[in-house]
Amino acid sequence: MPYRWTQIAEKEQQQWLLRRNCALTPRQLAGCFGGLGAVSMAIAVLFALQGAWMVVPFTCIELTALGVAFVFYARHAADYERILVSPGTLVVERVVGGAVDRVEVQPAWVRVEYAGTRRSPVRLVAGRQQVEVGRFVPEDKRMELAQELRESLARTRAW
């Protein structure tokens, strides 16, 4: 499930947790990459013992590329967006590569913009401040997310 919508126990608050649909945790991926690296190095050593020592430098290049791919994946595997709407506040918390960005505004000032075109994000706009959300939501579900946010913001204005 690419994104998960949950409603907090209190009826006045709603929360959306949007995150990647990762098949493997960083620890599981490290085990897979470690196993691949060990097999590659074992094959390189066997070739080096047979006199084909040039296989070893290429294996080292391969393992370096594998390591870079692992670091990139692990750094962004835990990325998420959390949107919390309550009567007095709208909080958008985005975590990208371990960096936390948090925006808090009055829900009465917020409007939801979504163009509906390919690759267009859902924007929460409050005056000059705008936050793009929904990057982990499939394009065909972004309209649904925008509608849910509009309805939730309308309910907060009614309170």
Description:
By secondary structure, this protein is α+β, with helices and mostly antiparallel strands. 42% of the residues lie in helices and 28% in strands. It has three helices and eight strands, in the order E-E-H-H-E-E-E-E-E-E-H. It has helices at residues 26-49, 55-76, 139-158; strands spanning 3-6, 14-19, 80-86, 89-96, 99-105, 111-113, 122-126, 129-133. Strand 6 (111-113) and strand 7 form a beta hairpin. 15% of the residues are buried. The model has no long low-confidence stretch (mean pLDDT 87).
Residue share in helix: 40-55%
Over the alpha carbons, how many angstroms does the gyration radius reach?
A: 23 Å
Report the major sheet.
5 strands, antiparallel
SSE string: EEHHEEEEEEH
Give me the count of strands: 8
The DSSP helix count reads 3
Which strands sit side by side, in order, in the main sheet?
Answer: 1-2-3-4-5
Unreliable parts? none
What is this structure, in a nutshell?
It is built from 3 helices and 8 strands, in the order E-E-H-H-E-E-E-E-E-E-H. The chain is α+β, with helices and mostly antiparallel strands and 159 residues long.
